[in-house]
Amino acid sequence: MKKGIEITPQSFANEIELETLVDKACDLMETIYREGDYPKMLVRRSWSEHNPIITGEMALPGAYRWYLKREMRKLLEKKAEIKIFPSRPRVEMNDPVLFDNADEDEWDITQKKLFLFSPERIDISLNRLEHYTGTKPEDFQRYILFTNYDMHVEVFHNLYPECIKPGHPVQMPAYHHKLPDNKGFTLVNIGVGPSNAKTISDHVSVLRPDAMIMVGHCGGLRNHQEIGDFVLATGFMRADQILDDILPLNIPITPNHLLNVFLKEVLDSHKLTYRLGTVYTTANRNWEFIKKRTVEEIHVSRSVAIDMESATVATNGYRYRVPFATLLCVSDKPLHGKPKLSGAAQSFYDNSKEMHLRIVIAALEMSKEKNPEGLPNSSIRSLNEPLMGGPE
After folding, report:
1. What's the rounded Cα separation, in Å, for the pair 326 and 344?
2. What is the rounded CA–CA span in Å between residue 314 and residue 201?
3. pLDDT at 376
4. Which of 85, 260, 331, 333 could form a disulfide with 217 if both were Cys (CB 3.0 to 4.6 A apart)?
5. Could you give the count of Cα atoms lying within 13 Å of 92 in the half-sphere of its Cβ?
6. Which strand ranges, in their side-by-side order, compose the sheet holding 5-7?
7. pLDDT computed for residue 289 by the predictor
């Protein structure tokens, strides 16, 4: 049996020694997992009055090594003590018990972010992530962009011709502009609809990305909008219904404020026309066929745009505590005699696709520069999950 490792404030004297110990701890976790057990991390935090010891198990730690290194480094700099050791034998992927231990009805949503997912859930999600996207989990970068269109993939290829691509046709192909320490960008073409949006965000959240941004198109709902205008979501009308039985509708879902600040700054710098407001997300692509009912909800919610994925991604971002935002581009105005028709739509796509992606990438570059260790998490933590190092 592989022995454990314990790191205390006395174990290192400088930044170089700290980095060496963190790497050693990550190596040990990967070895424990590879040899057939789940690695377990136990953290003693002397500053915490109510939760001095936090603990959790890992799976496939190499896939999100960058995140484990960052969090351990933060903890150790706060004078925490960390112990890594084998926990229990891994559950095989074909064992029915696997799903018993990943059941979200038994899930503690207030668990610390570092230990939010059970190792069984991590195993399942990362296996499915590779299946759906055609790329390895460790290729995913910290900054995730979701799109519905091959045209955004084309732009991404032009910007990053050396990006990692799927080796065969898959349902939701992913493309990775890899940088050291996973500080690059990942683009996933998730297809259309809230079901796909839930599936991909269920699984990619296990990797603890620093941001997820929906880069989509929408129907403009206001008189003073034009085809090609942008919509920066400040809230979401959850008419997709796909997560209603998991997260109550009376829970407010709002995007990450700082991501929206960065997106707005880029939009303003290019003097682009955009609206701030609520995005109405529906599961019904032909919602116009029940126009009266839908329009009543649109009016009550004061929505400025309608789409099929944004609220779903946002709701899962909230549940899994991943910073998220939505930047949409108006492709049609179905309530104003401008439905999405083939010829006009293609012209819109040709004119908007590159600018749309460049705006989001520029905003994420700003976020990377100003928050190199990730966005502040005070807005996505639970009520009883004080900030790391703060009063507890």
Report:
1. 24
2. 9
3. 84
4. 331
5. 3
6. 5-7, 81-89, 37-44, 53-57
7. 85
* DSSP secondary structure of 313-341: HHHHHHHHT--EEEEEEEEEBGGGTB---
Q: How far apart are CA 313 and CA 310, in angstroms?
A: 5
d(CA 165, CA 111): 34
List per-block mean pLDDT (blocks of 10 residues) for the chain, which spans 392 residues: 84 94 97 97 92 94 97 95 96 90 80 90 97 98 95 94 96 97 97 95 97 93 88 96 93 96 97 95 85 86 94 96 96 72 58 88 96 75 43 40
Helix (H) and strand (E) counts in the chain: 10, 12
Of the candidates 389, 357, 371, which has an alpha carbon nearest to the alpha carbon of residue 323? Answer: 371
Domains of the chain: 5-122 (no CATH), 134-370 (3.40.50.1580)
Cβ neighbours of residue 27 closer than 8 Å, sequence gap 6 or more:
none
d(CA 314, CA 241): 13
Alpha-carbon distance 55 to 265, whole Å? 40
Total length of the chain? 392
Burial class (CB in 10 A: 0-12, 13-18, 19+), 63: buried
**Structure tokens that stand for 383 in this block:** 């009520």
The residue with tokens 């989001």 is: 360
Q: For residues 95 and 70, what is the distance between their CA atoms, to the nearest angstrom?
A: 33
Count other Cβ atoms within 10 Å, centred on residue 8.
14
Distance CA 58, CA 373 (A): 21
Residue 344 has what pLDDT? 54
